[in-house]
Amino acid sequence: MAEEIQKKSVRAGVLVTGTEVLTATIVDRNGPWLSEQLTALGIELAEILIVADHADDLLSGLRHMESIGLDLVITTGGLGPTADDLTAEVVGRFTERELVLDREMEDRIAAILARFAKTSPVKLAPAGLNAANRKQAMVPEGAVPLDPVGTAPGLIVPGSGGMVVLVLPGPPRELQPMWRTALEEPLIKEITERATQLNSYRLRMFGTPESELALSLREIEADGLDISQLEVTTCLRKGEVEIDVRYRDGATETAEGLREALHMRHERTLYSLDGTTIDEMVAGLLKGRRLGLAESCSAGLLAARITNVPGASGHFAGGVVSYSNEAKAELLGVDQGLLDEFGAVSPEVARAMAEGALERFDADVSLSVTGIAGPGGGSEEKPVGFVCFHAMTSDGGERTLTPVIPGGRSDIRERSALVAMHLLRLLLTD
Amino acid sequence: MAEEIQKKSVRAGVLVTGTEVLTATIVDRNGPWLSEQLTALGIELAEILIVADHADDLLSGLRHMESIGLDLVITTGGLGPTADDLTAEVVGRFTERELVLDREMEDRIAAILARFAKTSPVKLAPAGLNAANRKQAMVPEGAVPLDPVGTAPGLIVPGSGGMVVLVLPGPPRELQPMWRTALEEPLIKEITERATQLNSYRLRMFGTPESELALSLREIEADGLDISQLEVTTCLRKGEVEIDVRYRDGATETAEGLREALHMRHERTLYSLDGTTIDEMVAGLLKGRRLGLAESCSAGLLAARITNVPGASGHFAGGVVSYSNEAKAELLGVDQGLLDEFGAVSPEVARAMAEGALERFDADVSLSVTGIAGPGGGSEEKPVGFVCFHAMTSDGGERTLTPVIPGGRSDIRERSALVAMHLLRLLLTD
Q1: Would you say B170 and B50 are in contact if contact means Cβ atoms under 8 Å apart?
Q2: Which helix (H) or strand (E) holds B366?
Q3: CATH assignment at residue A319
Q4: Chain A partners of B245 at a C-beta cutoff of 8 Å?
Q5: Which residue segment(s) compose the domain that B254 sits in?
Q6: pLDDT-derived band of residue A70, with 50, 70 and 90 as boundaries?
């Protein structure tokens, strides 16, 4: 214990410049990509700030990031040749460094532009090229320039308050290689070496609401497990709860203790202890079998989900989207008497649909979904969201469910496909 | 001119809370959506700041936004029942307002949770529910609560410096309706009324690349239309190009001139002049008809798309997802000889599948899709992305297409469903 040095966590920020990102014209891919890179290095990403191409907004963003004590700020974009590309200049102002012409860089950019001009479909004016070239070769004094991947050089600029600013270009195919180059530079290396890499795992739950999970976490803590050593984030995503746990080496035992405690408390719903998705799990369980589907309200969403996994043709024979009663009778052989007596949305018809799919596709496993997706068509007995599921195997296995699924039309349809996946999992792990 | 008052621009910021967004676990959809909403209201979005679920980061973010003089900050997320959901508390601290229990809100949330508990597949502990409930009903004193769409109420909180904080939940399907409610509240209305609203329209294109559209815009400008009066954004979205045009009252004539000029230049591909989507258009064209589908590589995505429109059962009979050759033969009556001679992915089999769908579903219109979605299964003659489409009507109308669609497996599958929608449109408008 005496030898162990408590490391202070290293924190970074990403400052995205670009009116086109802010106006939702393009989606920022650099923020998420850099987030993953930083996390893998054990650096905590404190925030991502997206600002327009205005000098004032950029400058106030840098000041804000300095004020919250970040070790590293990565700016993306604003390094091009046009007037609204002003990152180098603003970072120079922020770090109180004069812009000076880097002649070596100027020559390098000139060579790149000459190559570019030769292959360009339009004739480029030399005067415009030279001005652009010179602008891009202006570097804050004392900064470390990074060679262009496209035409724009990057920069590493030490700030007065100890915060280093890494200036990268906006296009991901330029930013990504330049990031790797930057990692080799002493100014950046010094930061990454202070960081401690984090371990992590992910759990997935289906059927337990977040509120109940919150209660479990509080109780597990009350039982004596020091969860404060871990970073636990829970996230409701597409109808399931994802639990991400991040921890430093010293907290491995606590992290494993939490995994076990959650598993014990939620054995029925905590279906993935290692991050495996339900889609991967069902694909694995179907290996060596043949699946046939009969869908009404989910109308192809389940088939699309099953076949989203490459190689699905090895275990998926096909499906019928039986949106009309005629289709249920004609393509799945559902008895008209059942449809008349119980209605198209009933456990009885669901069973007949599953039987039909098993037979028509000559399958080993089948599953049917029939329900009321709304907005119309509901009744007191069978409200909007009432969905009947029936799963069966050719050797006599059966599983059914008849929940009322909350939400609007597309929620009900998508949730139906998800419930069906879990019913398949339960059927095949019996 | 003397009477016209130059309005000061109204500026807003979006503060996204969520470690899961910051760690790139989920993609933030709220920032871009709110950006579009604000722009439509004539409010300038100054920045989007994404922070982790830590009180300090959230608080410093709010202080930063106040320091740059914003009129409105919209926070998203952090309103759930777990301990890392702390937006309401931090906004209370920022605006120097004590948290007080809103009893009416507590009752409303309790009623929502009781409904939820009734339909849950697992039994929920009342203690957990009550604690979660009470936490979500704690409101900064003097704030205006907004009724929950899910279980979390929103808030409008006036700050001391004149900046109003609008607190919205993270899930888009809760945030979007609550945003509309908030617009009716006096505190928000007062801000939106200070902004000058923009007029706008949206065009949709399929089949023209963005670069060609950019060239058209330059040429239209060179022909004398002063496009600089308009705010034109083009965006490649789900395989189509969306063109948004925003303009102030004085520029109406120019905006209409642009709509007309684009229509003349791209008559074949500019299919929507008023923002109507292809899905809405096809649903309209199918009114009074019955559609049957036969899908291989799109595997239900087309059926799911057709039925995403409420009331689809009026014109959609059903579909077969014929993933195996057996299914093509057994369920669609495709001749085994055709499969042997031309292969499952061929114009000949596509035609037989469409005929089978027309007959089996007793339909007036049918469409088939069969292709190679990859990653495996391609050949020199039939590479990955080669997809055969065949659309027909019972009275002899026919349309075919056999493109090679670029991209990965899911691009090819989704693009197949989109191409099929446009083929239906062309068939039915012939």
Answers
A1: no
A2: strand B365-371
A3: 3.90.950.20
A4: none
A5: 199-276
A6: very high
